[in-house]
Amino acid sequence: MTRKPSVYAAVIAASFGVALPQTLLADAPVIQTVGPVIHLADNLDEEAMLGWCIDTEGRGLGDQLHAHSCKPTGDDVLFSYAPDTGMIESATYAGMCMAYNAPDSAENPFGLIACDEADQTQHFAYDEASMEIHLADDAAQCVTVAPVIDDAGPFQSRDLLLAACEDLEPSFKQWVIRGE
């Protein structure tokens, strides 16, 4: 089954290539977080050079995900990827996994829900060569971040989105999966 991202998300993602030419890309982030994280390979203008990690939205356990400054203390930015199942699980909240469960949401298509191997919305594939995270059943759709940065207390955040891989600049779709 193929799920289509919202038109809004696709238009924003397609504009990345026009708005941010390769020569303006930031340096690699300085990841200070201890523990497993999934972060963008490029710092992508995170002002403290902490990088962008998958994170729960709000403080603590939340049911929606976004990208957030990789907090030095870890907390809710700790996620691990299991290649054998394709599931992305919170290391902070055991038994809670990332899911593409709200495909019609322009800002929050990814949620954090109880892990269920039978739920196809929780299955992802990571391509080590391209560093892309795709939907397991649609390799043409990549996990990415919005171009807009929001203030999030002492840190920053971006919406976590899904868009056509071919429309994205590498800095918006290349993820590093770091274990313990």
Write the layout of secondary structure elements.
Layout: H1 7-19, E1 37-40, E2 52-56, E3 65-69, E4 79-82, E5 87-90, E6 96-99, E7 111-114, E8 124-127, E9 132-135, E10 138-145, E11 150-152, E12 155-164, E13 175-178
**Radius of gyration (Å):** 15 Å
Structural class: mainly beta
What global shape is seen? globular
- What's the overall average pLDDT, rounded? 87
Helix tally equals: 1
Largest sheet: 7 strands, antiparallel
- The proportion of residues in beta strands is 35-45%
Number of strand segments: 13
Helix content: under 10%
- Distance between the ends: 33 Å
Order of secondary-structure elements: HEEEEEEEEEEEEE
Descriptive overview:
With 180 residues, this protein is mainly beta. The protein is 7% helix and 35% strand. It has 1 helix and 13 strands, in the order αβββββββββββββ. The protein has one helix at residues 7-19, and strands spanning 37-40, 52-56, 65-69, 79-82, 87-90, 96-99, 111-114, 124-127, 132-135, 138-145, 150-152, 155-164, 175-178. Strands 2, 3, 8, 9, 10, 11 and 12 form a 7-stranded antiparallel β-sheet that branches. Strand 2 (52-56) and strand 3 (65-69) form a beta hairpin. It is globular and about 40 Å long. It starts with 6 loop residues before the first helix and ends with a strand.
